[in-house]
Design goal:
This protein has 65 residues and is mainly β. The chain has one domain. It has strands at 6-9, 26-30, 36-41, 49-53, 57-61. A 5-stranded antiparallel sheet has the order 4-3-2-1-5, with no helix packed on it. The two termini are 13 Å apart.
């Protein structure tokens, strides 16, 4: 997972409140730690950012290199 990838939450996220965001897509904007990632929810205004564990997401589309 790298900056620019488009990701979605896994079907069974480890935190209950994340279940209501299963249909949303996110863009990876930073990887501040080895296991953490900062994502921006796609299509929100103002931008909605989360910093969570990488294990919560799966890659939908990798950034073109």
């Amino acid at each position: 997972m790298k900056v620019g990838d488009i990701v979605k939450l896994h079907v069974n996220p480890s935190v209950d409140w994340m279940h209501k965001y299963l249909e949303e897509t996110f863009e990876v904007i930073d990887a501040p730690t080895e296991t953490g990632v900062r994502v921006k929810m796609v299509g929100t205004d103002p931008p909605w950012h989360w910093i969570v564990g990488k294990k919560e997401f799966e890659i939908v589309k990798e950034k073109d290199e």
